[in-house]
């Protein structure tokens, strides 16, 4: 039994800009658990800087190495691991990386694809695209290209003061495309007038307009807008999802397993959305092919009803660390059929992309 953590660095094909900054490469942790003949994999969705969340690669490495690794030496089922880790506050991205490693391990041990282990599946993930902030002409080109490729929904990143220009120019050029906007927390309730001006564009939802840990103000905002609210950053766990629906803070949830401690909690959040007459979809954190395979398997679950941010690998990278990247047909991606996440690691490129690695046990 061996647990290896690698910090990988992969350049993006194009810089990705949100209201919290620009990234031109992904640096993230890849976990490998070798046991017998099987190799289980996972990816921690933290990145180099703590902007989206307080976690970053260093805090995640610390948590996994110094607190979580000794809970998995007997490779428990995900549920038992979460019980063991419950005494550790927060650090969901670190916990999720380990929880998902265990899902991959146990589905490979049973020789079933992860999608089957997760439960009833649609057999495919519906796919939308997340487009970063850029010059108007660049955004329009990217939207046109996305529609041509067959994406089922286009999400535009917006920033305070640029929301109207971005959304109106895309809506004018593409009157029928299912469109959403993601603010990544850049507004407050004082910006109500700015946000109300977006109502006329018929967005399927407005994602995380207010504070990263807020529910109460989102509930107030939801009462003022005709556009449905989708929460991302604010949903840090199963109870927060329940509370969001109780308060009327959101009717749509962007599920990122990394943000809520893994796949078990992701299924619970999807169930809460369904039970409350809401909707859910699977978000992305610009993952490599390893993390992407988990997202695609989850996005194919029957409880997930909206297109996710699960683009094929070649949207992000010229070359990925897997040999079997996903391809999209008619806006859908089929999860891998091989056991577990079903990715074949590109060992040579993984080695080339590795900045540093740690053997934990
Ligand atoms: O808010 O959904 C977000 C990327 C990094 C951090 C936060 C977000 C995103 C994206 C990109 O929107 C989704 C993807 O294509 O992986
Ligand atoms: Mg978001």
Please explain how this structure is put together.
It is a single chain. The chain is built from twelve helices and 13 strands. The chain has a seven-stranded parallel sheet with strand order 5-6-7-8-9-10-11. A four-stranded antiparallel sheet has the order 3-2-1-13, sandwiched between helices. Strands 4-12 form a two-stranded antiparallel sheet. The chain is an alpha/beta fold. The termini are close together. Strand 1 (2-18) and strand 2 form a beta hairpin. It binds 2-succinylbenzoate and magnesium ion.
**What structural class do you assign from the helix and strand content?**
alpha/beta
Order of strands side by side in the largest beta sheet?
5-6-7-8-9-10-11
The percentage helix is: 25-40%
Report the major sheet: 7 strands, parallel
Write down the overall mean pLDDT.
98
Beta content comes to 15-25%
* End-to-end gap: 8 Å
Shape: globular
Total number of strands: 13
What does the radius of gyration come to?
A: 19 Å
Question: Which stretches are poorly predicted, pLDDT < 50 over at least 5 residues?
Answer: none
Contiguous helical run count = 12
Bound compounds: 2-succinylbenzoate, magnesium ion
State the order of secondary-structure elements, H for helix, E for strand. EEEHHHHEEHEHEHEHEHEHEHEHE
């Amino acid at each position: 039994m061996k647990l290896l953590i690698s910090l990988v660095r992969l350049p993006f094909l194009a810089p990705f800009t949100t209201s919290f900054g620009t990234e031109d490469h992904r640096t993230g942790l890849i976990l490998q658990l070798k046991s017998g003949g099987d190799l289980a994999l996972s990816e921690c969705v933290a990145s180099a800087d703590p902007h989206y969340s307080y976690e970053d690669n260093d805090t995640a490495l610390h948590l996994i190495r110094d607190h979580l690794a000794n809970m998995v030496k007997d490779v428990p089922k995900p549920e038992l691991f979460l019980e063991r880790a419950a005494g550790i506050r927060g650090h969901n991205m670190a916990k999720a990386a380990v929880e998902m490693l265990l899902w991959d391990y146990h589905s490979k041990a049973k020789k079933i694809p992860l999608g089957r282990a997760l439960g009833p599946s649609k057999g495919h993930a519906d796919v939308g695209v997340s487009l970063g902030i850029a010059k108007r002409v660049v955004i329009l080109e990217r939207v046109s290209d996305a529609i041509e490729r067959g994406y089922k929904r286009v999400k535009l990143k917006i920033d305070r003061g640029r929301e109207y220009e971005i959304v109106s120019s895309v809506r004018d050029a593409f009157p029928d495309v299912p469109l959403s906007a993601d603010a990544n927390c850049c507004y407050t309730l004082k910006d109500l007038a700015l946000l109300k001006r977006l109502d006329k564009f018929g967005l399927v939802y407005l994602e995380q307009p207010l504070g990263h840990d807020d529910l109460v103000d989102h509930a107030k905002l939801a009462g003022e807008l005709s556009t449905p609210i989708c929460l991302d950053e604010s949903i840090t766990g199963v109870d927060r999802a329940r509370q969001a629906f109780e308060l009327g803070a959101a009717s749509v949830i962007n599920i990122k397993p990394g943000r809520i401690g893994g796949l078990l909690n992701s299924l619970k959040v999807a169930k809460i959305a369904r039970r409350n007459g809401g909707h859910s979809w699977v978000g992305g954190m610009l993952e490599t092919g390893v993390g992407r395979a988990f997202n695609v398997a989850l996005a194919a679950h029957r409880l997930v009803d909206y297109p996710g941010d699960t683009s094929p690998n070649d949207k992000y990278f010229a070359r990925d660390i897997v040999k079997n990247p996903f391809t999209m047909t008619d806006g859908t991606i089929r999860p891998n059929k091989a056991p577990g996440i079903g990715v074949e690691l590109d060992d040579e490129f993984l080695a080339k992309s590795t900045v540093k690695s740690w053997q934990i046990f």
